[in-house]
From TrEMBL:
The lineage of its organism: Eukaryota, Metazoa, Ecdysozoa, Nematoda, Chromadorea. Coiled coil: none annotated. Residues 23-216 form the Protein kinase domain. It comes from Bursaphelenchus okinawaensis. It comes from the Eukaryota. GO terms for molecular function: ATP binding; protein kinase activity. This is Protein kinase domain-containing protein. Pfam families: Pkinase (PF00069).
Length: 216
């Protein structure tokens, strides 16, 4: 499926109780521009996972899977704890309106918490210490991401989950771009690109479409 847009409601209805990679989809979590996210539970050991399914073009989700796989391939010895872990990816057969479509999907770790909500539980000195601790851990995740030649391009509080209610995890690599090759050489910059990301968090270069022109 590379050109057909799907109604998120249709996708949610079609996938509840669907089994993917031994994970049974139990609840819809939300939908964005490129995909819908679901909470899933392993049919044997009952561990949870998040499954993201493409709503429009499969290309975006395939690239997101490739980006997340890069995190695994290049960080086996010194893998950061603050980047979302991919388990599996592929295509599933989605039946809507009696039509079967092949939709790209990613099975990844389940990190449902919210960093802002977590900080809001504290007051005074504890609020300051907790905020600084989460900020440093999140920066560690961004540092590891950048060290692999990847720019997130949609970093915001909503894209940071919480593992075990205490460890921040950077999520949603749908707009990420790999800016260097395996030897660390920068890829050629594009002089003009469509605006990307979330307007209230985006830089002026992104809003103007010059995000990757290496302008100062």
């Amino acid at each position: 499926m590379d050109d057909q847009e799907l109604d998120p409601t249709q996708v949610k209805e079609a996938l509840i109780d669907f089994v993917v990679d031994d994970y049974k989809i139990v609840k819809a979590l939300g939908a964005g521009a490129f995909g819908a996210a679901f909470e899933a539970e392993h049919i044997k050991n009952k561990t949870k996972a998040c499954i993201k399914v493409a709503l429009g073009s499969n290309r975006n989700l395939r690239f997101e899977a490739a980006t997340m796989q890069r995190l695994v391939d290049y960080q086996r010895k010194h893998r950061t704890r603050h980047l979302c872990r991919i388990y599996e990816n592929g295509e599933l057969n989605l039946v809507t309106d009696k039509v079967t479509l092949k939709n790209a999907y990613i099975t990844m770790e389940f990190a449902p918490g919210n960093m802002v909500g977590h900080i809001a539980q504290f007051y005074g000195y504890d609020f300051l210490i907790t905020g600084c601790d989460l900020a440093l851990k999140t920066l560690n995740g961004l540092y590891n991401l950048h060290s692999l030649g990847i720019i997130h391009r949609d970093f915001k509080a909503e894209n940071v989950g919480m593992r075990n209610d205490r460890t921040p995890v950077i999520l949603d690599f749908g707009l990420a771009r790999i800016v260097s090759d395996r030897q660390g050489n920068l890829r050629n910059a594009r002089s003009k690109v469509a605006p990307r990301g979330t307007s209230e968090w985006a830089s002026w270069k992104s809003e103007m479409g010059f995000e990757q022109a290496w302008l100062i």
